[in-house]
Amino acid sequence: MSVSDEKIRSIVKKVLEDSLRQPSAADTAADTASGSDPGWGVFQNMDDAIEAARVAFERFQSFDLQDRRKFTDAVRRVALDHKEEYSRMAVELTKMGRAPHKILKHINVAKNSPGIEYLRPDAWAGKNGLAVDEWSPWGVIGNISPSTHPSPTMLDNIIIQLSAGNTIAFNPHPVAKQLNARVIQHCNQAMTRAGAPENLVTCVAHPTLESAEFMFAHPQTKLLSITGGPAVVKAAMKHSKPIIAAGPGNPPVLVDESADLELAAREISESAAFDNNILCTAEKEVFIVDSVFDRFVQAFSTLGNIKLTGSQMDQLADKALVKGEQEYYISRDFVGRNASVLGRALGMQVSDEVGLLFGETDADHPWVQAEQMTPCLPLVRVRDFEQGLEACIQAEHGFEHTASIFTRDMNRATRYSKRIKTDIVVINGRTSRGDGGDLGEGYFSHTIASPTGHGIVTPRDFCRKRRIMTVGAMRFI
Ligand code: NAD
What we know:
alpha/beta; about 45% helix
């Protein structure tokens, strides 16, 4: 039986089309296992994710500020309705942190992420007429979200960047891709129910370094919003387009001899233990003036934290901290694990209830120098305030992220704040009080964009500022 060329061509075309449309068997398995079957903003490739967000942006532009509030309120509702599910999933997928703490992070995002109230225009009226500066969207924003807070960061970014009128294509951290795909789907479902166009937020089902690079370089991503460690910030900054980069931190604390030691111990203990110390803002090393060091250790132990010897701190560092080309970094097997897991690595039985391990080290110890993101806190003895200040500046590595001081001497507090130059400085409180919300004052964001100078971001940071000037009219006084 002979088959015509035409027929063969059509069969080949169909097979090719089908194979292009079909994900690989492994991808299909991953999608099914995760419940993130493509749809509702989840795409098999980044090009489609960006194109869908571009089309959505065209439609989104005809909606006004009150619509944006309605849609982002729907996202806040998603955070509250799914907080337990997302928190459980995050612990299962990333093995980091504690679910009850993650639930609090979702509530915080829903309540305290800034919205359209930050877009009030600036206006000048004078003899020449009226000038108005307005906050205008960029278009599609390419986002990288981290492994450490996969759903809270994504939800916070969605609320802030959609409030600013943009749409978003995400390349989530691969370890949390199923969770992030689910968040995207829930948000699009909730927003379309509230009347929004589809695909205001999109992501790739299977993010890779290649899909991240593709997103950075794509002509339709007009702005990049990057949250992660030094490597991803550096990779994104190579591209000549505007970027808001939330990079690493290594927040130091200084406790001087005038400090309220019980307050300092309590605040630092609760903050560093929260979600097993994976917040970039959380205390990573504490410098204490020698004359009050032992009293601070006593207060810290009374809170149920477990003191390690110097040699146990060294042994744990050998297991958990890896020497890179220039600096130490934490092994993925230890990031955000419970103190009991770290204890087990030393052959110790530590209850799951214990918040922190801690021990005395030198200032140049890897526990101090690495952004270690574990519930194991190094305490360093310093001669006086001046030596402590210099040690804090050195340990912060110029990230300009977060730092804190406990002192009753406000001249020292002022000097510390001026010298350390971080985006967040907290005086006499835990570092997380510096990022607004219920523990602090003002708005909250998961994005503290130190490398690009944006600090704790609001929707304004995701806008282009544009001016309109009416000459000789529109004045009514
Ligand atoms: P990470 O750098 O390991 O990963 C972030 C993302 O970047 C992932 O999707 C990863 O695949 C991708 N990536 C890494 N290198 C890349 C490259 N060369 N090119 C393209 N993509 C690349 O970070 P993480 O473990 O997910 O998050 C923890 C880090 O994020 C910490 O350093 C923490 O301080 C920081 N962080 C900062 C803030 C802030 O507001 N400043 C907030 C949260 C987390």
